[in-house]
Amino acid sequence: MNRPVLSFQNVTFHYPSGGSLKGHPVLEDIHFQVADGEFVSIIGPSGSGKSTIFRLITGLEQQTNGEIYVNGKKMSNRLGQVGYMPQQDLLMPWRTVMENALLPLEIKGINKEEAIEKVRKLLGEFGLEGVEDTFPGHLSGGMKQRVSFLRSVLSGSNILLLDEPFSALDAITRLNMQEWLLGQWEKWKKTILFITHDVEEALFLSDRIFILEPTPNASIREVNVPLDRPRNVHDLSSPEVVKMKSDLIDMLRLKVRT
Ligand SMILES: Nc1ncnc2c1ncn2[C@@H]1O[C@H](COP(=O)(O)OP(=O)(O)OP(=O)(O)O)[C@@H](O)[C@H]1O
Ligand SMILES: [Mg+2]
Closest by alpha carbon to 212, among 40, 4, 63? Predict the structure, then answer.
């Protein structure tokens, strides 16, 4: 295993308001490590705390107990340490594609011309050439997600947190985006944490899958995906992967019922 870039040790978290589960933590005594360059998906029932894990990693929320290490450092302010693509599309409707993409560079105080140059160089790679002056309201769902993804990459961080980035897409667009993401990941050698409800998507993309149990007492199980890289979508038909998919679905179903 490469050096760990992210580590949760005995992490427990309560929302200050108590959330919808008053008296119960959303996460209890969670441990995991993610190695440099790994692709890890997180699956689990709705409300099990997947997005909360990302909010803790970014430092938008602070754990109640336990330690979180990002790139080997224990920091309370981790904003700016990771590229974060939240579950909701947070593109600013009054800003063009270019102006949205520029945000993380503006926040870092990078000179505007230099920042524009940096974005321009990446537009083609993200399939956004020619739409830089368009407003989000005039883009397709897939394009909006690529702008949001571009923005999280421009944070310059080695760790990307993607919260259900393809959930709103039709099956074919989704497959195209998954293949595109794998290509980007192989090129940039970043570490990716990817939340999804789609077990097949998790199997296609990941090295490992974390399965989050429902709160209260959320804990994490994990499986290794037995597929070589580069992958193609037909690899998902191998008997071993078909069996793993059905086991994961059973696991999630049981967890929803109990
Ligand atoms: N800002 C908040 N304040 C209080 N409680 C919250 C807050 N955000 C989430 N919660 C509660 O914390 C729990 C976990 O929420 P979280 O958003 O992490 O779930 P999730 O696994 O991402 O779900 P989904 O799959 O629906 O996106 C839920 O019970 C939710 O009601
Ligand atoms: Mg969520």
Answer: 40
